[in-house]
Amino acid sequence: xxxxxxxxxxxxxxxxxxxxxxxxxxxxxxxxxxxxxxxxxxxxxxxxxxxxxxxxxxxxxxxxxxxxxxxxxxxxxxxxxxxxxxxxxxxxxxxxxxxxxxxxxxxxxxxxxxxxxxxxxxxxxxxxxxxxxxxxxxxxxxxxxxxxxxxxxxxxxxxxxxxxxxxxxxxxxxxxxxxxxxxxxxxxxxxxxxxxxxxxxxxxxxxxxxxxxxxxxxxxxxxxxxxxxxxxxxxxxxxxxxxxxxxxxxxxx
Length: 253
Ligand SMILES: [Zn+2]
Fold this sequence. Notes:
- The protein is built from four helices and 13 strands.
- It is α+β, with helices and mostly antiparallel strands and 253 residues long.
- The strands form three sheets. Strands 8, 9, 10, 11, 12 and 13 form a six-stranded mixed sheet that branches.
- A hairpin with a 2-residue loop joins β1 and β2.
- The structure holds zinc ion.
- The site of zinc ion has 8 residues, from loops.
């Protein structure tokens, strides 16, 4: 991916630690920049603001706060900026031989000039699933859980990272069993969402309850229950794919 030479306007997502500050000028020309893509006629750049610098004078926002202040497209590109800058910051040395890495030519990678080891941007696939029980209709129930790490008292879908050597569908079945003790089947893919906290890709699924009662893993889940559409607990805000999965279910007959 390369910038269009005809792009007349540029926009710079300055990454201050893990916060973002978008501006039409780069605050310091000497800072490392990463091309992010084009949006609305602008070439977008992620700017690696050195530690202890803050060209925004405190105005930079974390990505949660930036959501809602930017369009969804600009929020996604800001998430890309944070992920690429963080990746470059944490891959300055070769993981095999310890030599300082260099940006590779022609591809998004950090390459070791000594041994040739190449590191690509990190992306951690995670699955998230809404489990339902019963026939479609008003009596169908969804399994929603309150995770131990939730910031707010809300109930959401089950989620977890995919392990090496595992299929996405296998991860859905395993995570649901581990977190709440129930067996599921008929796993269907519904959609995805980049989740730059810090570098996940959320893959959204729907699954049907097969057997078993809810038994929560206390290390992961504070509480989980079956809920009908007309008696939902507090659910996540619109920023998350969890909400989209729940809204999709609510929209079914
Ligand atoms: Zn090396």
